[in-house]
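Next comes this protein.

***
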Amino acid sequence: MGTVAKLVNASLPVVIAQYSRDDYGAGQEEFLHWALMVIVKRGSLEGPTWHAIDKHRPDGQVFWERAYLPKASLLRTSKCIGLVQIGIVKARDLKSFISVVGSGDPSTGHPVSPSFQGWRCKDWVLEVIEIIRETEGWIDESVLAPGRPATREVFYPALRRVAQATQQARQSDPRSPPSVEWIE
């Protein structure tokens, strides 16, 4: 296979990236922030990343918006405390993936719109996981079996493992990268 074919056919990991919050870290996964990411450069844990972010107005109202970072690197933040691979997208399909999830234009992709009391960033990630599983098959069946709904509880065990591994690594070297659980 030629170089161009290898690049176009490369399998890019789709991951849930988990971030600590000011008051919460490893062991408190139900309170942590989630984002969705496609890793295009494994060595630097770099790639397009999507966040659902709550914004607080001076009048106390809260609204949500999607943040799209086309070239985020998780080696540049100590807030990321672990990643769990949930699927793959071929490099040739990355533009399609971005159009399904959303680009910098808020009118594209899956909207950020809370649908129930207590809705959080995790719920937006779970909604997107369902969409990309159903429409494109980008979610690995070993992670989320057909017919099994994407829920927080499905992903908490793996997210706990990577958070604990990251925390242990950073005790000896605070600059350690976040731990990643890859699909084998």
User: Anything to note?
Assistant: The mean pLDDT is 89. The beta strands are 11-19, 33-38, 46-56, 62-73, 80-90, 180-181.
